[in-house]
Amino acid sequence: MISMFSDLLSMANEQPDPQRLLFLFASAQATKKSKKRDDQKGTIEPTMVVDKLPDELSTFEALVKEADAINKEWDFVFIASLSGQMRTPPTSDEAQTYLDKMTDDVMTGSNIRKYVVFDREENPIELIAS
What we know:
Blueprint: H1 5-14, E1 19-32, E2 41-52, H2 60-70, E3 76-83, H3 92-108, E4 116-119
C-alpha cells in the first residue's frame, strides 16, 4: 500500500513508459454516526477531476493548495495512473475517458479498491463499498 504521496510520484517516475496521474476529489457525507472511527458509513460525492504529469507535481501540500483554489469542498482524493506508450505520456484528452470511469466508480462504489485514496492531511484511506 502506498502510504505517502511522494511514494506515488516516485513509482510513477520509475515506470518504463511515462505516466499521467488522474485525480478525483470527493466530499464525504456521513449517513450513520458511529463511535468507532473505522466503522463510519456514508456516501462519497465527486466534486472535481484533474489529470497531471508527475513532473507537474511537487508535494501533496501543493496539490491541496491548487485544488482548494478551485474548490475547497472535498475530503478525499482518489488517484490512478494512466500509462503512456512508446515513451510518450497519455494526453489530457486520452485521460478524460478514465476520469469519467473514476467518477462512475466513485459514484457507484464499484472498483474503488483499485485507487489510491488520501484524505486532506495525506493519510491513506481504505474505503469499502457496501
